[in-house]
Amino acid sequence: MRPSLSACLDSINAIVLGKDHQVRLALACLLAGGHLLIEDLPGMGKTTLSQALARVLGLDFQRIQFTSDLLPSDILGTSVYDKDSGQFQFHEGPIFAGLILADEINRATPKSQSALLEAMEEGQVTIEGATRPLPSPFFVIATQNPSHQGGTFALPESQLDRFLMRLSLGYPAQAAERALLTGQARREMLPQLPALLGDGELQRLQAEARQVRVSEPLVDYVLRLVEATRTQPPFAWGLSPRGSLALLAAARAWALLAGRDYVIPEDVQAVLPSVAGHRLRERADPAGQGGGALVQWLLREVPAL
């Protein structure tokens, strides 16, 4: 692994304790150029992980607190009349930053949620008939509370599909929680994190991830996984082409973090739960959250070779 990537992982793991696998997945998601959805109970460290990623990667950071009264213009920006010039001046919204934390995204109405769709897909926003490019690189890390909690609006499938990965942090192990209780507050440590990637280095690493080699048998394995989601009885619907591209991009980034310039089946298997879990539903319960069980079915039933 490149020393800069190893340093990034070490710095984030010093803040988010006991979650090495989830931290590696989050970094792989950004190296693959994707957006990340973190679903968990309040107080699990979702915001802390987002801020740590922004700091070590050297990205401008903006946090948007999603609430039921949030308007699209609160996210994108709006034009304000300037009496001195006699013209309307556009004031950029918080979306014009390198990394956006859409905090508790499912507490906003679908109209406000949809304000992110073009930004996440195209890296631009259209406001008052004018298209405005967003910074590059541009990432959205969204957090959401479990859907059974009050005051939430479920994300539609079209928006879920735009997140390359979804992951959960879960409760910390006892040793990690002891360190949290007896050590310095993690939020106080965040300002001390230095930016570990210089200008343009993240883009170079993303380009390097795209060049990680994928053999024909590996592509065949991905195709078998995707085909199983589209044809086998447990699945309400299959992975879209965007989903299959996301799986391969995430596997390439995971291989890069492992210090390899080629993908092996274990890379695909490592990222499959986070890439496919939120895109799949069981035929018997299409409105439920059965993606995790379906991923385990894929790992068990679809041969790698």
Q: What is the 3D shape? A: globular
- Report the strand count: 9
CATH topology of the largest domain: Rossmann fold
Strand order of the largest sheet: 2-5-8-1-9
Segments where pLDDT lies below 50 for 5+ residues? none
Give the CATH H-level superfamily of the largest domain. P-loop containing nucleotide triphosphate hydrolases
The helix content is 40-55%
Q: Can you lay out the helices and strands and say which pair or pack?
A:
Elements: H1 3-15, H2 20-31, E1 35-39, H3 46-57, E2 61-65, H4 72-76, E3 77-82, E4 87-92, E5 99-103, H5 110-113, H6 117-122, E6 124-127, E7 130-133, E8 139-144, H7 157-160, E9 163-167, H8 174-182, H9 186-189, H10 201-210, H11 216-231, H12 241-257, H13 265-276, H14 291-301
Parallel strand pairs: 1-8, 1-9, 2-5, 5-8
Antiparallel strand pairs: 3-4, 6-7
Can you walk me through this structure?
- By secondary structure, the chain is of the alpha/beta class.
- The chain folds into two domains: 1-209, 3-Layer(aba) Sandwich (Rossmann fold); 211-305, Helicase, Ruva Protein, domain 3.
- Helices cover 44% and strands 15% of the residues.
- The chain has helices spanning 3-15, 20-31, 46-57, 72-76, 110-113, 117-122, 157-160, 174-182, 186-189, 201-210, 216-231, 241-257, 265-276, 291-301, and strands at residues 35-39, 61-65, 77-82, 87-92, 99-103, 124-127, 130-133, 139-144, 163-167.
- It is globular and about 70 Å long.
- The two termini are 26 Å apart.
- The mean pLDDT is 90.
